[in-house]
From TrEMBL:
GO CC field: GINS complex
Keyword terms, alphabetized: DNA replication, Nucleus
Similarity comment: Belongs to the GINS1/PSF1 family.
Keyword Nucleus: yes
Species of origin: Peronospora effusa
Domain GINS subunit, residue spans: 63-144
Main location: nucleus
InterPro entries, alphabetized: GINS_A, GINS_bundle-like_dom_sf, GINS_Psf1, PSF1_C
Cell compartment(s), UniProt: Nucleus
Record protein name field: Uncharacterized protein
Domain DNA replication complex GINS protein PSF1 C-terminal: residue ranges: 157-201
Keyword Coiled coil belongs to the record: no
Length: 203
């Protein structure tokens, strides 16, 4: 459960590169919980075998049930504890998966249509599909209303900004090579700044 306890991130920007390592692969958490559940099932099987060994007839079974609290309190307690632990794991997993889903949706607003390389390796296939499906829904909605919901609510003071290229932007623009500086329209570079490929130079 240590992976789940590590979810208490700051409620601000969505998972910067410095925190990317905390965005662990969901399969790691699921595997940990699965191993714990297997141990619970093995213990339950031992308890079941213990109960079966009695081979009691009906009258003896009723007498056993009447004296369960005194004769087999440890067995009864073990079953209850195991059951509650399984329910706890279920609640934790549901909360963990929901938390990741909300972070992935917020990632679309923070970085645009492309998943940063620092986070892509920590997402499973279904989470990548969720990101692209949410992106498609958002794109279709903005297209229908001809409205860019990802734009700043306050109009920028300057239409052009000076930026420095931190990493090569690849096929997006052959001019944007690492360590070069450019004076470009804000609307063109805004998403690249959010993705950590460019940084704005403030004078």
């Amino acid at each position: 459960m240590e992976k789940i306890k590590a979810l208490r991130w700051e409620t601000g920007t969505i998972i910067p590169d410095s925190l990317a390592q905390k965005f662990v692969h969901v399969d790691q958490v699921l595997n940990l919980c699965q191993r714990e559940v297997q141990l619970f099932h093995q213990y339950d099987q031992l308890l079941t075998d213990y109960m079966t060994d009695f081979e009691l007839d009906l009258s003896a079974l009723r007498a056993f049930q009447d004296n369960l609290e005194t004769q087999s309190a440890s067995v009864h307690c073990g079953l209850v504890v195991n059951h509650q632990c399984l329910l706890r794991n279920k609640r934790c997993l549901i909360a963990y998966v929901y938390h990741r889903m909300e972070k992935i949706k917020a990632l679309r607003w923070e970085t645009g249509t492309i998943i940063p390389d620092s986070l892509a390796q920590n997402l499973c296939q279904r989470e990548v599909q969720l990101f692209h499906q949410y992106d498609q829904l958002l794109t279709d909605y903005m297209t229908d209303f001809e409205l860019d919901l990802s734009a700043d609510l306050k109009p920028p003071k300057d239409l052009y900004v000076e930026v420095r290229v931190l990493r090569d932007c690849g096929e997006r623009s052959s001019d944007l090579t690492a360590h070069s500086q450019h004076f470009l329209r804000r609307v063109v570079v805004e998403q690249l700044i959010r993705q950590g490929l460019l940084e704005q130079i403030k004078r």
